[in-house]
Amino acid sequence: MSGEPDEEKLEELRQKKMEQLQEQAESQQGGAEREAAQQQAEAQKKALLRQHLTDDARKRLNTVKMSKQQFGEQVEQQVIALARSGRIQGKIDDEKMKQLLQELKPESKSFDIKRR
Question: What are the two backbone dihedrals, phi and then psi, of residue 109, each rounded to the nearest 5 degrees?
Answer without folding.
Answer: -95, 125
